[in-house]
Design brief:
The chain has 118 residues and is an all-alpha fold. It has helices at 3-22, 25-28, 33-56, 66-80, 82-93, 96-115. Helix 1 (3-22) packs antiparallel against helix 3.
Length: 118
């Protein structure tokens, strides 16, 4: 994740926040629907990219263990509830620091699984 992409992410979160504060929801989902949906989709995509960059950085899985580890990782991520928390941080709070904190916590979970330390 580069500083430029993080700055762009912050800008988009701020834009979402300003939209929600200054434009009635009814207008956002009708008159401005296309641009509002585009902004939310861009944030979804960037959030996914940021989380993957943080969680997967430096991760090494032996090919022979890959399928088993991927299954364990996906299950642990679903059970952790972090994806819902990230969604809340993005779309309700517009809090980039919270997103980064959750990504760091997910990273710890994933790396523990890979090391066999569940």
């Amino acid at each position: 994740m580069t500083e430029v992409s993080l700055n762009e992410y912050r800008y988009l979160l701020d834009r979402l926040k300003r939209n929600k504060e200054n434009v009635p929801l009814e207008l956002l989902i009708t008159k401005y629907r296309n641009s509002y949906d585009q902004l939310k989709e861009e944030l979804r995509s960037m959030t996914k990219e940021i989380i993957q960059d943080i969680v997967l950085s430096g991760l090494q899985i032996e090919r022979i263990q890959a399928k088993e580890k991927y299954t364990e990782i996906n299950s642990a991520i679903r059970e952790s509830g972090f994806l819902e928390k990230v969604s809340h941080a993005v779309f309700l709070q517009q809090d980039v620091d919270q997103v980064l904190e959750y990504a760091g916590q997910l990273r710890e979970i994933v790396h523990r699984i890979v090391k066999g330390e569940q």
